[in-house]
Every structure is written in structure tokens, then in C-alpha cells.
């Protein structure tokens, strides 16, 4: 038999965070065993379970709890538990009359003592902070300020911190913070005013707001007055005779150039007047057109397109004597069309844009969205500007269609068609005026080759591609028969014409199931209201087995040789070549091979570092071949530095090879120069000698 022995837990004292759950545990060791216990607090019965829970504990639940047990042997057992309720700091600031306060008024020179009341469990550390002044710090519950002034006015915060360690597994520590603030209002006049923004800029037609503040701000809260330069002041000189507005903010809903000027602000309260502030308001004006481009404009080029010298000589003697002739497309070689443009008139065309703005606007001219560069090749731009009242600038710009690349420097050409824009822009806005310029001109042939190739029983497409405005009409004929070809009912001939942007038209004569009789010369006759263009001998349908005088006929066969080979880039171990392809022989899977060889000797020009150099053939190496596949340009690599090479290009398809192109000479660059092997100095002659032969490749030592 044992009397009851009682233990309480889970720990004693038991610490629980406010609003948490407290679990009071009672363990009893006794013989005979007990079936229940008795929990009491302050002598009052509260429960009889071995484990008693308190939900959402509050500070009123803190205190002593007793668990007792009796097994009938005449002596009960009991144990006492202490419950501690933990909570973060609760902070209030004493107003001085027993209540809480959020502000305190004081006179300048007065001393202040302010109490901070903190309730916390466990106890908290307390300090005072000042808003906007990180260096200010006072520890303890009392804030003391000796001889307050306008500079000490502001918001002060009482900050309390404690650490909570409630019962938990695992044990954890929580930092809790409580604070309260009070504003100290020191009666004083406002200090120097300040206006923001300090450099205000308004756009014409938009609003602008100026904000005034004072440092120190003054107490009681000041009134603000606004006025402009030029307003008459009262005799005291402190208050403007004409007040624009009162309050911290002054708003101009819609600024204009007349709004520009100096604005003043001053803060005033019953303690006195503060020093005024002023800012200069600048009003900017977006570019505004005073001269715009016509939306749509049509001009006629004074250029006549001819294709033979006979047509040129058929012009009048006076016209011929004053003609500048230029081939604007390709030289008439390798079977390609050459269009000769003959100037037959004298015309100068220009367009003008004008705008006003503040500040000065920039002016750009665009053609089809791309900026026009004033390089005196095709255009000249003349711009005049003047400064008016209120610093408003007037800018007038003229785009002149003149340049050294134009026929007779002033003639319009078909290329001039497009959308032109003058763009004025300043810090406020970008404005643009556009014009769609159409150029009336005779048809110009654009297709590249004067032949096509198809085999028997294939469907041939003979393409005639031209540029013209107004819209042209196409007529097809065959051989010497001038009668136009028409769509045939059996579908042998079909003609389809399409239009692209830029006044480009393509007419395709489709010939189904080519017969031997279909081979020969076809003429695409194109005409508009300005003239007509004959693509005579320009497009030929070719068959290998038939030859007619003056017309070269061939089946699908080897490609024609490339022309105009040039290097577009080079390094110390590579050369990138580009060329103009020849006619592909009717097959589109043309490949290219570059043959090259190094030239072992060079003239003195090579030692001078030129890109294209004369060479000596003695000791030349054999030709090597590089497969370019279908790449044009083609990068020929694995070359040696500072060497001169000969290059030539040939084309290849399934029918065979073309002849080689003309050869060109290219020299690779220098990668690095090795250090000299022998350097000597002669003190008598003061001569420094460097053995260059040891530095250069063997092939270059005789330079």
C-alpha cells in the first residue's frame, strides 16, 4: 500500500504564448491506483482529468494550478504547477494627463519628458527612435529633449523588444516587437520654401503641377501662396498682391507658351513668414507642321529606255548631243539584257516640309521607312532654321532629287517611286508627314537572262518580268510572226500575268508538252501609255539539236561560266569569293568549284602590301580545287598567310561543266611575324641590322 505521489508537467513552470493551447498534465503513482484527479485554482475546482487543456489562453489564465489525488488510504497527494502566459510588448505613450497621446505641442526652448508604458512577458528592452534620423537613439522608457526647437520637431517612436520561448518540441525562440509613435509639434514659423520639381518642364497642352514645402515646415501648419514674376508686391514685400493659388500644390491644367515664367511660393503661419522659393517653368512645344507633304503625287521620268544603238541614234541630233547615257542594269554580255537610259528632258524635282517647335527639332527624311543619307549621289537635303519669340524654332527642309548618280544630275528615275516621309522630333513628340510618289515611266525589262531551256514533252515557262507605271499590257509572239499568241483551246499555250509591289509585273507564257516546232525566238511586247518596250532577242526557248542563224539553240546542258569574280573578304588563311552566275543551262542544281594556286614569286608591289598584285609565273605551284557546293559567296580556306594566289571559278551540273571564269589575283593577310633571328648593331655607323630573310617564308625572301 502506497499513498499517492503526484507529478505535474510537461514542464513547470509551463510557458505558453497568448492565444495558444496549454496542456496541464498530472501523473499519480499510488497503490491502489486512482481513477481520477482533482484540478483546482485559487481553491476552486476546475477539472478531474489527468490531462486538462486550456484553449486560447489569455493573461487572465496565468497563475498557480494544483493537481490532487486520493486513493482512500487516508492521505492525499498533490502538486502545484505555475502557468506563465507569454505575449509581445504592448506599448502606449503617456500624454501627461494619464491618457495615451499621438502628438505633443511645445514652445521653442521648452524641455520635454515623455513616458512610454510597456506591458510584456517576459520583460522587454525599450528604446526611443526618431523618424528620418537613424543616428538618434535613447534607451529606457523616458524620452528627454532639452530646449526643443524647430529642428527637434518630428515623429518619435518608442520601440520595445522581447524574446518568447514557449514550450514546444523542439524549443524555439521568437523575437517580438511592439511600438508606438508620438509627433512633437514645436510652434515655430516656416523655414525656407522649396518647390518641386526644381526644373519644371511642361508640354504645350498638357498639365503641370508644382508642389511647395518648407524646411522646417512650421507649426501650426502653414498656408502656402503662389505668384509669378512681374506681379506687384505689397508694401511689406512678403505677400504678393495677386495670388495665383493657395495650398501646397499649384496646377496648370493646360500649359501654353504664355505659361512660361518664374513661379514663387511662400509658407506662412501665425508665427511668421518663411523664405520664399522660385522655379523657372519652361514650356515645350511639340513639332507642328507649317508645310506638309502632299499625300499622293505623280511625276514623269524624263528617261527613255532603249536597248540598241540604232534606237539611240534615231533620236534627234539636238537630243543626242545633250544626252548622258548610262547602263542602269547589266552589260550586254553573256546573253543578258542591257537597258540604256537616255535623258531626253531637263527637270528638277524637290519636296519641302516645315515645322515649328520648342526646343529645336531634328529633321530626317525617310524613303520606304529607311533614312535617306545625304551623300550627293541621289539626293540633296537643304535645311534652314530660325529662332522666334519664346525660343520657338522654325525649321524648313527641302529634299532635292539631284545627285551625281542621276542622269544629268536632275532627272527622275523609276527607282524614285515609294513612300517619302519627313520626320520632325524633339523631346516632346515625333511627328511625320508622308507622300506616296509614283513615277510614270516606260517599261523596263528586269529578267536576268535572255534564254530558257526545256526538253521535249516538258512544260515550258517563258518569263517576261518588267517594271512600268502606268499599268502595262503584254503581247506575246513567236518567231517572225507578229500575230499575238493567245490561249489555245487545247491548252498548249497559257498566259498568266501577275503584279508585285513596286509596279513590277510578270507575264508567264506557259507552253505545254513542248514540241520541236515550239523552239525558237519568242517576243514579249510590253506597252503602256508612255511608250512600249520590245524584249526582242531577250527570251529564247532553246533546243540543242536545232540551229537558226543568229540564235543560239541548246538543250538543257552545262551551265555558262561565272563572271565578275571578286574577293569580298580575306584573312591570313582564307579568301571569300563571290561571282555573278551564268545561265544555269535549264537545271537548277548548279554547283561551283574554285581552282587556285599559289604564285611563288611576286613583284615589288607585293612587298608593298597591296591587295591585288602582279605576279611572276616562274616556279608556280599546280592548281588545287575547292568544292563550294552551291555556296556563293564561297569561303576558300587552308591557305597560307601573306601569299599571293590565282583564283578561277567554274560551274557544274548533271550535264557537265562550264568554262572557267577569268582569273583574279588575291593576297592573304599576315597573321603574325616571327621574331628576327639575327640583329646586329654597328657602333661606328650607328646602324641596326635585322635579318629579314629569317623572318619571312622562303618564297618571299627575294622581295
How would you describe this structure to a colleague?
The termini are far apart. With 703 residues, this protein is an all-beta fold. The chain has 6 domains: 2-87, Immunoglobulins (Immunoglobulin-like, Sandwich); 192-275, Sandwich (Immunoglobulin-like); 291-302 and 345-441, Immunoglobulin-like (Sandwich); 446-542, Immunoglobulin-like (Sandwich), CATH 2.60.40; 563-667, Immunoglobulins (Immunoglobulin-like, Sandwich); 673-703, no CATH class. The chain is elongated. It is built from 3 helices and 55 strands. The strands form 12 sheets. Strands 17, 19, 20, 22, 23, 24, 29, 32 and 33 form a 9-stranded mixed β-sheet that branches. Strands 25, 30, 31, 34, 35, 37, 39 and 40 form an 8-stranded mixed β-sheet that branches. Strands 2, 4, 5, 7, 8, 10 and 13 form a 7-stranded mixed β-sheet that branches.
* CATH superfamily label of the largest domain: Immunoglobulins
Low-confidence stretches: 305-346, 532-553, 603-619, 698-703
Strand content: over 45%
- The domain tally reads 6
Count of helical regions: 3
Q: Return Rg in Å.
A: 50 Å
Note the main sheet. Answer: 9 strands, mixed
What is the number of beta strands? 55
Shape: elongated
Distance between the termini: 126 Å
Question: Mean pLDDT, nearest integer?
Answer: 83
Helix-strand category:
mainly beta
Which CATH first-tier class of the largest domain would you pick?
Answer: Mainly Beta
Quickly give the CATH architecture of the largest domain: Sandwich
Fill in the CATH topology of the largest domain.
Immunoglobulin-like
The proportion of residues forming helix, as a percent range, comes to: under 10%
Amino acid at each position: 500500500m502506497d499513498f499517492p505521489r503526484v507529478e505535474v508537467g510537461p514542464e513547470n513552470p509551463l510557458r505558453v504564448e497568448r492565444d495558444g493551447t496549454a496542456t496541464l498534465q498530472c501523473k499519480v503513482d499510488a497503490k491502489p491506483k486512482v481513477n481520477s484527479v482533482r484540478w483546482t485554482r485559487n481553491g476552486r475546482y476546475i477539472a478531474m482529468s489527468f490531462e486538462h487543456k486550456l484553449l486560447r489562453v489569455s493573461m487572465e489564465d496565468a497563475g498557480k494550478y494544483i493537481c490532487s489525488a486520493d486513493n482512500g488510504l487516508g492521505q492525499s497527494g498533490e502538486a502545484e504547477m505555475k502557468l506563465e502566459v507569454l505575449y509581445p510588448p504592448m506599448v502606449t505613450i503617456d500624454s501627461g494627463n494619464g491618457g495615451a497621446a499621438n502628438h505633443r505641442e511645445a514652445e521653442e526652448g521648452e524641455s520635454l519628458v515623455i513616458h512610454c508604458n510597456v506591458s510584456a512577458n517576459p520583460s522587454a528592452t525599450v528604446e526611443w527612435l526618431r523618424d528620418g534620423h537613424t543616428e538618434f537613439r535613447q534607451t529606457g522608457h523616458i524620452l528627454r529633449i532639452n530646449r526643443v526647437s524647430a529642428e527637434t520637431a518630428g515623429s518619435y517612436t518608442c520601440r520595445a523588444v522581447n524574446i518568447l520561448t514557449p514550450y514546444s518540441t523542439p524549443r524555439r525562440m521568437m523575437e517580438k516587437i511592439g511600438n508606438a509613435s508620438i509627433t512633437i509639434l514645436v510652434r515655430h514659423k516656416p523655414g525656407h520654401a522649396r518647390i518641386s520639381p526644381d526644373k519644371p518642364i511642361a508640354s504645350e497642352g498638357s498639365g503641370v503641377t508644382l508642389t511647395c514645402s518648407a524646411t522646417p515646415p512650421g507649426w501650426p501648419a502653414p498656408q502656402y501662396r503662389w505668384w509669378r514674376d512681374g506681379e506687384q508686391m505689397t508694401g511689406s514685400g512678403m505677400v504678393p498682391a495677386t495670388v495665383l493659388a493657395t495650398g501646397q500644390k499649384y496646377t496648370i491644367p493646360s500649359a501654353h507658351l504664355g505659361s512660361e515664367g518664374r513661379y514663387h511660393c511662400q509658407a506662412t503661419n501665425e508665427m511668421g513668414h518663411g523664405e520664399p522659393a522660385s522655379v523657372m517653368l519652361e514650356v515645350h512645344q511639340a513639332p507642328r507642321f507649317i508645310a506638309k507633304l502632299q499625300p499622293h503625287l505623280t511625276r514623269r521620268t524624263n528617261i527613255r529606255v532603249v536597248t540598241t544603238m540604232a534606237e539611240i541614234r534615231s533620236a534627234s541630233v539636238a537630243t543626242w548631243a545633250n544626252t548622258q547615257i548610262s547602263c542602269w542594269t547589266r552589260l550586254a554580255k553573256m546573253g543578258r539584257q542591257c537597258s540604256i537610259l537616255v535623258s531626253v528632258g531637263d527637270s528638277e524635282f524637290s519636296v519641302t516640309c516645315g515645322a515649328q517647335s520648342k526646343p529645336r527639332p531634328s529633321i530626317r527624311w525617310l524613303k520606304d521607312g529607311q533614312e535617306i543619307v545625304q551623300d550627293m549621289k541621289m539626293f540633296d537635303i537643304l535645311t534652314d532654321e530660325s529662332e522666334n519669340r519664346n525660343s520657338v524654332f522654325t525649321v524648313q527642309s527641302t529634299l532635292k532629287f539631284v545627285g551625281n548618280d542621276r542622269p544629268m544630275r536632275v532627272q527622275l528615275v523609276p527607282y524614285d517611286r515609294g513612300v517619302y516621309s519627313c520626320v520632325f522630333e524633339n523631346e516632346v513628340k515625333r511627328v511625320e508627314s508622308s507622300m506616296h510618289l509614283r513615277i510614270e515611266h516606260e517599261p523596263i525589262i528586269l529578267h536576268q537572262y535572255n534564254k530558257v531551256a526545256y526538253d521535249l514533252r516538258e512544260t515550258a515557262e517563258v518569263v517576261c518580268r518588267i517594271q512600268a507605271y502606268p499599268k502595262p499590257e503584254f503581247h506575246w509572239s513567236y518567231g517572225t510572226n507578229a500575230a499575238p499568241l493567245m490561249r489555245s483551246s487545247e491548252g498548249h499555250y497559257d498566259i498568266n500575268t501577275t503584279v508585285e509591289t513596286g509596279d513590277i509585273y510578270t507575264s508567264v507564257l506557259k507552253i505545254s508538252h513542248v514540241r520541236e516546232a515550239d523552239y525558237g525566238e519568242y517576243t514579249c511586247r510590253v506597252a503602256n501609255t508612255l511608250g512600249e518596250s520590245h524584249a526582242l532577242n531577250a527570251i529564247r526557248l532553246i533546243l540543242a539539236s536545232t540551229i537558226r542563224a543568229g540564235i543560239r539553240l541548246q538543250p538543257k546542258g552545262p551551265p555558262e561560266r561565272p563572271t565578275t569574280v571578286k574577293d569580298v573578304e580575306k584573312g591570313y588563311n582564307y579568301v571569300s569569293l563571290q561571282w555573278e552566275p551564268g545561265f544555269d543551262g535549264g537545271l537548277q542544281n548548279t554547283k561551283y568549284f574554285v581552282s587556285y594556286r599559289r604564285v611563288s614569286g611576286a613583284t615589288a608591289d607585293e612587298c608593298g602590301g597591296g591587295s591585288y598584285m602582279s605576279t611572276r609565273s616562274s616556279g608556280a605551284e599546280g592548281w588545287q580545287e575547292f568544292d563550294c557546293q552551291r555556296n556563293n559567296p564561297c569561303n576558300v580556306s587552308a591557305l597560307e598567310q601573306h601569299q599571293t594566289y590565282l583564283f578561277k571559278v567554274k560551274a557544274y551540273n548533271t550535264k557537265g561543266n562550264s568554262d572557267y571564269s577569268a582569273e583574279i589575283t588575291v593576297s592573304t593577310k599576315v597573321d603574325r611575324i616571327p621574331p628576327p633571328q639575327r640583329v646586329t648593331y654597328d657602333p661606328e655607323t650607328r646602324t641596326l641590322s635585322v635579318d629579314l630573310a629569317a623572318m619571312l617564308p622562303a618564297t618571299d625572301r627575294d622581295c
